[in-house]
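Appendix B, example 12.
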Amino acid sequence: MWVLILEIVIGVTAYFVMKSQLVKMYSADFVKCVKWMLIVPIVQVLVFAPIGYLATQASEVVETVDKLSRISTYAPFFGEDVNNLVNLGIEYDLINDTAMQNSHMGELVISAGITHIVGFIGIILFLIMAFVQFRGIFGTVKEKRIKMANTIAAMAILVVGLSFAWVMTCTSRAINSSDDYFGFIFMFVLACILIPFSMKFHHAVSLYYSGKNDKIIVPTIQRQSNNNGSSKVEQLRELKKLLDEGFLTKEEFDNEKGKILNQ
């Protein structure tokens, strides 16, 4: 519970820190329009952190299941004398330490090994893609590249998550010989959430790069409206374009429109 609260606090703090940096370069309204470009990468990091960690710990799941199938795991609960007798019997091969034969243990070992590798590869790939996304906000990364980075990061979350879900299903089979698909259901729900998040991110990136490339950020409106070489009609058209693309609020549009008409 405390880990979840800590993640939320870190995410909210990171959002406002990045937002404050953008506000220094662009208007508050423009930053508000592209806020999903800040939110989505942070959400991806917060979601991937626990999934990536669990995937790299898959081998410990195998060790835990193996201990549950051994007599020596339960012997200490029956007293020191029983524990000593069990250990002595195991040492001289008088007692088979395996309490039950597990036909699903091999499948669990394979799934854990694959998930362990996928987890480490996924972490490296995700960190690179997250770096590209955050650098795209404050750097010179191309629009297509930052969108691709977001898509790859989302795919990394799903692949690593599904790999660990496979481990949990194999664990359920090994312990009680039943299929538990909760992990796969959870990842399906997560995918349904990440897809619209990615769409919002792509839209925000398009607005952000359009504003940067066309140099029509809100602070430049006053300078454009005072340009004696352009007619009022042209200025009003440009102002309407800013309103339609979300760079201006209706109140700001009305104010700037009044200034142009009163020139």
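The longest helix spans residues 105-138. The two ends are 60 Å apart (CA to CA).
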